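Let us walk through a complete example step by step. Step one is to write down the protein sequence. Step two is to encode the small molecule, zinc ion, as a SMILES string so that its atoms and bonds are unambiguous. Step three, shown after the inputs, is the structure prediction itself.
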Amino acid sequence: MSKILIRGAKVLGGEVRDVLIDGTVIERVDTDIDAGDATVVAAEGQILLPGLVDLHTHLREPGREDSETVLTGTRAAAIGGFTAVHAMANTFPVADTAGVVEQVWRLGRESGYCDVQPVGAVTVGLEGKQLAELGAMHDSAAGVRVFSDDGKCVDDAVIMRRALEYVKAFDGVVAQHAQEPRLTEGAQMNEGIVSSELGLGGWPAVAEESIIARDVLLAAHVGSRVHICHLSTAGSVEIVRWAKSKGWNVTAEVTPHHLLLTDELVRTYDPVYKVNPPLRTEADVLALREALADGTIDCVATDHAPHPHEDKDCEWAAAAMGMVGLETALSVVQQTMVDTGLIDWAGVADRMSVRPAQIGRLAGHGRPVSAGEPANLTLVDPAYRGVVDPAGFASRSRNTPYQGRELPGRVTHTFLRGRATVVDGNLA
Ligand SMILES: [Zn+2]
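Step three: the predicted structure of the complex.
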């Protein structure tokens, strides 16, 4: 493979350096490196980050290829600066066997745009009744370490306990979609002032918080790791903060949309704002930002949830829940966290690459930008300003809540083990 010289980038937003990539690894990080026969990428004014890692992506294949495939989803991921994504298990069939997770893993390798680490279902068919073959999925070629029934909550406390006990044997983690089912029957949006004014069924904060409280206690009881998906309320933050203060093995993620958008948007009745967990209040948004800044929330995860237009362009009550997010995640984090002064770019590298890779025990990603490391890298132009136009998305779906919004920053280049997957903001 040929050499690539990234010239004059601010590494993690700090010192200006040249970075020489030789084949699949970073050969040298220094000043004034002689280009020789290397291809030069002029990166003055740009930020160099380790390739982003998403713990929570819905790639929809197998079964819903009308909304996304592994290929289109990993293209969207590369455009967004990601070099690895965890593919959620709520496919058709469900990823609850070694056969299905190996299929997804293989499709990811064939795509070549981004590493795909399959997430295995916790229970057979996501039905919450019987543990899936966790050990077989872990021992498969896919090497599953993260298990989740995401989309559904593992609400049976005994099943949750058994799953936590089971994954302990191989240092796995259970990622919980915290939603008490009885408290959210018929829920259409956040329960609060807006839901009562609109007369829509409310999704109370306590439905999320009660499950998180139970699960951090269970994780502590069995001495295992639990990860909380898409925290959305100020109360959830308080519980995770308390659990961490006890020294329990609890991690948590927040989505970009929960860092920016509030339930006031539901007044438009535009189903593009319908998502699970729902958009919450301004006070929740501010608590989530603060928690991501102080490390209570470990990482950002997109919950990229593509849907075809017929499932979203309909009345609110009938619309599917979810938003695409891979291609806008970094821009939303820049706007809500960096441009507000809450974290710096080294913080972005930590929350969007290092920590999600650690939680997923994903080798080769979330590594320092230094010699000898795999060349999984993302180059960002933070001065860029652009209006989101979903017509240009690499994703097969268009259900973004940011259409027509100006967002800062753009990924100019993404490198997966030294191969450029994105060049000048376009797929290579
Ligand atoms: Zn979920």
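Step four is interpretation. Residues 4-47+373-427 form a domain with the Urease, subunit C; domain 1 fold (CATH 2.30.40.10).
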